[in-house]
Specification:
Layout lengths: L1 H35 L12 E10 L15 E4 L3 E4 L2 E4 L2 E8 H9 L12 E8 L4 E7 L4 E6 L2 E7 L12 H7 L4 H4 L9 E11 L6 E10 L4 E7 L1 E4 L3 E11 L2 E10 L19 E7 L3 E7 L11 E6 L11 H4 L4 H15 L17 E6 L2 E11 L5 E7 L18 H7 L5 E4 L6 E4 L3 E5 L1 E2 L3 E2 L5 E4 L5 E9 L2 H12 L1 E2 L4 E2 L2
Antiparallel strand pairs: 1-2, 1-9, 2-3, 3-4, 5-6, 6-7, 7-8, 8-9, 10-11, 10-28, 11-12, 12-29, 13-14, 14-15, 16-17, 17-18, 19-20, 20-21, 22-23, 23-24, 24-27, 25-26, 27-30
Organism: Proteiniclasticum aestuarii
Protein name: Lipoprotein
Length: 507
């Protein structure tokens, strides 16, 4: 009996211990739950405080900025509100990200950050949003300094208050007058032009059977009420008259080679194409850019027609295209060209781990540039040939932190910020802004979508038209006409091409 009692006591003690353990487990669990449902607290933000103007630099090289207009420029940031200059938002959201300084400023502003006195490899960017719109991006330079981009100006500010900013209350007059787009009140209505049109040049894929590549031109117009679209074979582009560009593939001494063919089709027609002894610079050639005075091409003597691997890159004069003599950036932009090219190349050389840095030659850097589309602008790109770690010659692309001069690109403005384009059309990969803000053309992989522009930089909710294009087509030209010129261009295009009927009207 005693043994049985001992066993029972032991079992009871064990059960008691287990029960206490379970209670302890429940206690810990409840503590965890309590911690998870505690009242949220307001986290601080890295740029919280008040700031005053320190310096302003224009994003375009060589443009003078009168600092007198900025001496009263201030900014404030808190969880209750944010203000940059006269623009304000309540209850903003702050999203911070770390970016590569060079890549970010090259992609978004086409400027080398060293010119803005930014020397750090990485930079914290704080994006500020309100419930109804994007506000500003703030660059945190260090503990006491920030910068913002307003218009075409890079403005640095210094902190004047270490503690949290006072509770923010938006001034009703400021809110009513500016509404997030203060520039709208300052822009004259005379700048708006409802009639505009654009010639969009498209390069398609190669035919698998013939290796020939397709090129076509779209003429897209809007007069404020009616939109029209025409299609023309090959590339139709304007100079004093209208010209055509073709890429011809011919047999030369038993080998297939390609060449350009450029000639006038209006005014006094050019018969030079029937008199010229053509040069054939390559086995394969692709046009990357067409402007009024210059054409960019890439080419190869090899059997690989892939664009990415073509070692030759050049921008040549339209008037002397058959010479295939590459333009030198030092001739086109003697003030900033060489410096920008060298700095951009050094960035690539330093970043590419597989590149044999000893084998890099910059001899052809200044004559091996082309123009390509990138997020709403024409961007310059050069190419370096060097050995990789496998002792194989490889093509290295060099994005150039330099805005093309007017002689190369006549018009390349985008009044609608790229971030706004992406917010309206998340699939956007490019955008084109009509002079006079008649319309905005947004390119997605499969469509060109036409939107009206409200005020200065607000995009309408629904597109006016949607034009189908092929996903593999690249845009190589954007030439604009406005006002009375639209009708003349339409007359030429309608005689050369055909009206497209697969435009979808969504208005």
């Amino acid at each position: 009996m005693k043994n049985e009692n001992r066993i029972k006591k032991g079992i009871g003690l064990l059960i008691g211990l287990l029960f206490m353990g379970l209670l302890s487990g429940c206690t810990f669990g409840m503590d965890d739950v309590k911690a998870g449902v505690m009242k949220p607290y307001a986290a601080g933000i890295s740029i919280e405080g008040s700031y005053v103007f320190e310096e302003v630099i224009n994003l375009e090289e060589g443009k003078f900025v009168d600092e007198t207009n900025f001496r009263d420029f201030t900014a404030e940031f808190s969880l209750e509100g944010a203000r940059v200059g006269l623009e304000s938002v309540e209850l903003p959201g702050y999203i911070s990200k770390l970016v590569n300084t060079f890549d970010y400023f090259l992609e978004k502003y086409r400027v080398n950050p060293s010119r803005l006195k930014l020397t750090k490899e990485s930079l914290e960017v704080i994006r500020i949003n309100s419930t109804d719109r994007a506000f500003y991006e703030v660059f945190r330079l260090d503990e006491e300094h920030i910068a913002v981009v307003k218009g075409n100006n890079f403005i640095t500010l210094s902190r004047v208050q270490d503690g949290p900013a006072e509770a923010f209350i938006m001034d009703e007059a400021v809110s009513e007058n500016f509404g997030g787009a203060p520039e709208a009140a300052e822009v004259s209505d005379s700048l708006f032009e409802p009639r505009a049109g654009v010639l969009i040049g498209l390069r398609g894929e190669r035919d698998e059977a013939t290796d020939e590549q397709s090129y076509r031109t779209l003429w897209i117009t809007n007069d404020g009420e009616i939109q029209e679209v025409y299609e023309v074979d090959d590339i139709l582009f304007p100079r004093k008259e209208f010209w055509k560009l073709e890429v011809k593939r011919d047999e030369v001494e038993g080998l297939e080679k390609e060449r350009l063919n450029i000639y006038a089709i209006t005014g006094t027609p050019s018969n030079i194409k029937e008199q010229m002894d053509y040069n054939y610079p390559s086995t394969f050639m692709e046009v990357e850019f067409v402007g009024n005075n210059y054409v960019s091409i890439v080419a190869t003597e090899g059997e690989d027609s892939a664009n990415e691997s073509m070692p030759k890159a050049m921008t040549i004069s339209v008037d002397n295209y058959n010479l295939y003599r590459p333009a030198n950036i030092n001739d086109l932009d003697p003030k900033d060209g060489v410096t920008a090219f060298i700095n951009s190349a050094d960035q690539v050389i330093e970043r590419e781990e597989a590149l044999d840095k000893e084998s890099v030659s910059k001899v052809n850097l200044f004559t091996s540039f082309i123009l390509k589309r990138h997020h709403g602008h024409w961007m310059m790109e050069s190419r370096l040939l060097a050995m990789n770690e496998n002792d194989e010659e490889e093509v290295y692309k060099v994005p150039i932190a330099l805005k093309p001069v007017k002689d190369i690109v006549t018009y390349d403005d985008l009044t609608v910020p790229w971030v706004s384009v992406k917010e309206r059309v998340p699939q956007a990969i490019d955008a084109f802004n009509a002079p006079g803000n008649s319309f905005l053309l947004v390119r997605t992989p499969k469509y060109l979508m036409m939107y009206s522009i409200i005020g200065v930089n607000e995009i309408a909710e629904e597109p006016l038209q949607i034009i189908e294009i092929k996903e593999e087509e690249d845009i190589i030209m954007a030439e604009w006409a406005r006002g009375e010129f639209v009708k003349r261009w339409t007359d030429v295009v309608s005689a050369q091409g055909r009206k497209i009927i697969f435009v979808q009207n969504r208005k």
